[in-house]
Amino acid sequence: MRSAQLLAQLLLCLPAHSLHHPALGAPRDLSSSPASPAVDASSEPPAAGSTSEPALSEAAANRVLSCYMCHSAPADEGGCETLSRHFELSSLLPPPNSKTLLFGESHMNEIARAIMAAGQQESPSTFSVTSISEEGSPPEECYCGLEEYHQVKPCACGYQARFTLGDNATIYNVYNKRHLQGGSSSEISNLRALLDDLRGEGFTHALVMEPHPSCWFDDPNDLGHDCDEERSHYGCGWAEEFWSIFTEYFGHNLVHVVPWSVPADDPLIGGSVTGGAKGVAQFRLLEHIEAAPCTARKVGEGDEWRQQVSHGEPKMSGGLPYGGPHQCLWVVDEASAVIRPAALVGATAALVAGLSDRQKEKYKHSGIHL
After folding, report:
1. Of the residues 13, 33, 81, 207, which has the fewest C-beta atoms closer than 10 A?
2. 154-119-316 Cα angle (round to 5)
3. In the chain, how many H helices and how many E strands?
């Protein structure tokens, strides 16, 4: 099924104030560049009762790693396209009272950061973030927001973090944490202990992608390129046990979120190993962004990529063969200070919509992938 058709089916399950994604062909955010105002006199107003605007506030942007905040030429000059003015940040928020685990590597963290930013902007009075560190571990420091490297705005990397959103929704995010993702017997025990704790707290849903293989954690500051390039396919190296564990804890409330540069013919996608059991839904990010990608070009070498605002490129290229380059979450125009959502933000909204049991049931009987 073509990606545009798939997304169109998904959007039928969303509320009436649904987003208009560039993948649908129209209406695009065409007449304007990322510098354009989020709402103007000719725009249709947001749905009644909505306080959302597609433009991100600086306070919310400060929740996003700087490398995911991208500068780009206007779309009509060959730069990245952004979502329609009708897109609402509230569509990124999980259902009321829900408790959801996000688990994977940094591609999953982009999903988490999009939700975090929406939580900050939509419900600032109830939004909170708590980073969780192992005892005795050094402090984590990344860089967030719009500041350039020489105007440092440090923030917690949040490799393991809990954040509370409006309507009593909770997200627990884990990415690039060896003691939970390394695959050794002790690390698997740590993972099971965490999942036991979360189940005891009432966590019912999980959005999961496979983490890096254990060799990646030997040299994370080099981003594990040597380790990753030795592998020809996506996967953590212990997929069968990995998916068996998550299926045991979450059952049909488990969604396999497939990174955007994993090809459809990768042997682990749709194979017997992926998903651990029949009936596990897959959400293939590529199908939601391939019509309007915005690659976050790396700035600097090694770990310096965390320290600077990136540059958007409207193509899907570079990066590792299975993991792919990072995508821009928001496109920034320095002259106007307007911050507009890129295609991955729309994909996140569609993914979050699937956390609704009613909508998930529709997907299950439709025969389509999430």
Report:
1. 13
2. 70
3. 10, 14
User: Is the backbone peptide bond immediately before 27 cis, with ω within 30 degrees of 0?
Assistant: yes
Q: Are 333 and 75 in contact (CB under 8 A)?
A: no
Alpha-carbon distance of 268 to 240, in angstroms, equals: 10
What is this structure's pTM?
0.80
Q: Are 338 and 34 in contact (CB under 8 A)?
A: yes
Q: Which amino acid appears at position 301 of this protein?
A: E
360 vs 370: CA distance, rounded Å: 8
Instruction: Let me know if residue 18 belongs to a domain.
Output: no
- Nearest-angstrom CA–CA distance, 331 and 54: 11
Domain that holds residue 294: 3-11+53-366
Total domains, the chain: 1
The CA-CA-CA angle for residues 333, 70, 172, to 5°, reads 125
- Give 284-324 pLDDT, tens digit per residue: 898 899 899 999 876 655 566 666 778 888 988 654 444 46
Inside any domain, residue 34? no
Alpha helices in 84-233 (DSSP H): 106-122, 178-181, 185-200, 225-229
CA 95 from chain center: how many Å? 17
Q: Two tokens at 277?
A: 């059991």
Q: Are 14 and 35 in contact (CB under 8 A)?
A: no
The DSSP bridge partners found for residue 161 are: 131, 173
